[in-house]
Amino acid sequence: MPALTLREVLALDPVRAADPELLTGRSALDRPVRWVHSSEVYEGANFLDGGELLLTNGFGLTDTAEEARRRYVRELTARGAAALAVEIGRSLPTMPPEVTDEAHRLGLPLLALHRVVPFVRITEAANRAIVARGLSGRTPVRPWGDDHTAALLADLADGQPLNQPEVEARAALSGFHPGPGARLIGVSVHGTRDVGTMDRAARTLGGSVLRAAFPGDVLALIAVLARDRDPVRAVQEAFRTTTAPGLTVAVGHAVDAGDGWLRWSETLRAARTTLELALTVPPPEPPAPQGPLVTSSRALALERELTRGGVEANRDRLTRLVQHTLAPLLAWEAAHPSDLVRTLEVHLRNGCSPTRTATLLHIGRQSLYQRLERIESLLGLEIDDPDLLGELLTAACAWRVVRPNSAALIAC
Predict the structure, then answer these.
(1) Which domains does the chain have, with CATH numbers?
(2) Which of 109, 150, 208, 304 has its CA 20 to 30 A from that of 333?
(3) CB of 356 within 8 A of CB of 363?
């Protein structure tokens, strides 16, 4: 059966209600759409797997330079996006001409949505239609097994309006029966379409799993028994021991199965948001050698707050914060090969434990002490001062978020 096309997506009622205007790419209306995804993270192109219609309210395009906007369009095209739809009227009063020009040059269909329609309505209608059509992410074979499993996870991850009896019935249809007292954790894995990745981790945990493969990630709800004092950490360890190297795993927070479908939705959404950040921002600590990168929504809580609305929308503010707090360290690192800022962040993140910090940085304790003394000397303060921990950790995290433009930081 043929894939759902962009032309057919535009004919769906929620899309038509948004009053879409096709600005570029009229000749590409019959290209297949494998999934519809929304993201306000400026570097959201990293999350795409090809064939997606990306919806954005344009917030990440505000207060950015012309070249940054052009680069955004180029990155979407390079990742194989089927089209870009931008809401006009709230964040952006008009479509930036450089976005239109770059989309026209690259042949990327560009839509201006002139009326506000919640993106969840658009994604629900489109992704349901895609699932019903039996669309594959990459091959003519249906990759999701039972369509209702993928549809349920998509509805939950997109925050669709549901009700508890419906969710429980649809979960049961997929063989997912979280028992009394079970904790549910959302998980999103990038770099594979093998749902067996979720199955192996669930078996290690002795729990059950609801999972499906989507363009961009494999998504799952894993149910674990309440005997685990820290189910999030237990899930992370399970993936570290069962997942192939090179994959990125993002774990949401734990919720009680009996708390209702809204909480189920929250942990799935947290997992996907965390995955976007994990693919965009370098990790604070080096990943385990020859292993997957496994992180969690709580591990990236500070990154989520600092990048609310997108990295580019916050770049200038974060750059000023880093320069104000860490300028002496940045100047030293520009003149001397060192790793002082990362050392500072890892040390603060690990409770100022010399043993833990040295282990994670793969250096001896004496070398660590020398680095810490250098940091304190340059900053003129004691880094374990409780009054300074929050400011220093926030600035070190912000440095990592904007580090690709680190030369600009030093020049400030």
Answers:
(1) 6-133 (3.40.1390.20), 147-298 (3.30.70.260), 310-411 (1.10.10)
(2) 304
(3) no
pTM attached to this predicted model: 0.63
* pLDDT tens sequence across 339-378: 899 999 999 999 999 999 999 888 999 999 999 999 999 9
Q: φ, ψ for residue 248 (rounded to 5)? A: -115, 125
| Rounded Cα distance, 28 and 291, in Å | 40
For residues 211 and 163, what is the distance between their CA atoms, to the nearest angstrom?
20
Mean pLDDT of the chain: 86
Alpha helices (H) along 139-249: 147-157, 164-173, 196-205, 231-242
In the numeric block, which tokens belong to residue 284?
Answer: 């604070």
Residue 156 three-state SS = helix
State the chain's maximal CA–CA distance in angstroms. Answer: 68
The whole-angstrom separation of Cα 18 and Cα 116 is 6
For tokens 């994604």, name the residue. Answer: 123
Q: Beta-carbon neighbour count of residue 272 at 10 Å?
A: 24
Could you identify the residue written with the tokens 């239109």? 100
pLDDT at residue number 43: 60
pLDDT digits (tens, 9 = 90+) for 119-139: 888 887 887 777 666 533 333
- Of 33-37, 176-180, 289-293, 319-323, the one with minimum mean pLDDT is 289-293
Residue whose pair of structure tokens reads 């799993």 in the numeric block: 209
Per residue in 223-279, pLDDT tens?
998 665 799 999 999 999 999 988 999 999 999 998 989 999 999 999 998 998 888
**Residue 35 CB partners (closer than 8 Å, separation 6+):** 51, 52, 53, 127, 130, 137, 214, 215, 216
| Cα–Cα distance, 248 to 287 (Å, whole number) | 10
Taking CA 372 as the corner, what is the angle to CA 371 and CA 378, rounded to the nearest 5 degrees? Answer: 90
* In contact, 192 and 166? CB cutoff 8 Å: no
